[in-house]
Design goal:
The complex is a heterodimer of chains A (39) and B (184).
Chain A (H helix, E strand, L loop, with lengths): L1 E5 L9 H5 L4 H12 L3
Chain B lengths: L3 H13 L5 H19 L2 H18 L10 H20 L3 E5 L1 H11 L5 H14 L2 H12 L4 H8 L3 H25 L1
Helix pairs in contact in B: 2-3, 2-4, 3-4, 4-8, 5-6, 6-9, 7-9, 8-9
Classes of the chains: A alpha+beta (39), B mainly alpha (184).
Chain lengths: 39, 184
């Protein structure tokens, strides 16, 4: 549920460097293989 | 930035070999991350949800039909569903800041000529009373500045329908604000 408060804008997002900390294609393909790999 | 033609070529490659999904992931990561972050306001949670969005996209890549709409619309559609599910599952409140510019963009559309300061309070109050579905239209149209065509591609509806639903949400906001004005 979203709760808005006035201010710090809606469109404020982390910097590209901060975002890139979560960018990992190797981990993504690993998760994908886990999801699709058939106790 | 990749062109529409390059993107379609990359999609065809990824449909044949999912390991070729990398360039599409690189091209759209920030867009999806930003979209989710604006709605959950936590970097680590956004990282998890973004990863989930791309795993689901990879899983459905073979079924993806190239229609001419950008791939980002499809990815944001998946992201929106993940955000909805997250809010439904946790029932946690996410505190989202709105700047004066955000609020003015809605107020100018409401064409309200009453006292600005009081309107801001009433608008915040009204936005918090608006149902989640209607909030999506307000966020996309007025805070993110998306066109009705873009909204339609994301929400899988026609542009006219996106417009109707947006103005329906605005009318609901106006009604809540009117009640707020009379009860205050």
């Amino acid at each position: 549920m979203t709760r808005y408060h006035a201010n710090g804008s809606f469109n404020e997002v982390p910097s590209q460097d901060e975002m890139n900390k979560y960018k990992d294609f190797g981990k993504l393909t690993h998760n994908y293989q886990r999801m699709t790999n058939p106790i | 930035m990749i062109t529409r033609e390059q993107e379609q070529e990359l999609i065809r490659k990824a449909q044949k070999d999912i390991n070729a999904f990398g360039p599409l992931y690189d091209a759209h990561f920030s867009t999806v991350f930003g979209f989710i972050f604006k709605r959950v306001r936590s970097q680590s949670l956004t990282g998890e949800l973004t990863s989930l969005v791309f795993v689901k996209a990879m899983n459905s890549m073979s079924k993806y039909v190239i229609t001419g709409a950008p791939l980002s619309s499809w990815l944001i559609q998946i992201a929106l569903n993940e955000v909805r599910q997250y809010h439904r599952r946790t029932k946690k409140q996410t505190s989202v800041p709105l700047s004066e510019a955000d609020l003015v963009s809605v107020l100018s559309e409401l064409d309200d000529k009453q006292e600005k300061e009081r309107n801001m309070d009433a608008l915040i109050e009204a936005l918090n009373k608006l149902d989640d579905e209607a909030s999506i239209y307000v966020e996309m149209r007025f805070f993110e500045g998306r066109s009705f065509k873009e909204m339609a591609e994301i929400l899988n509806i026609s542009a006219d329908n996106a417009k109707v639903r947006t103005y329906r949400a605005l009318n609901r906001l106006r009604t809540i604000m009117t009640n707020f004005g009379t009860t205050k």
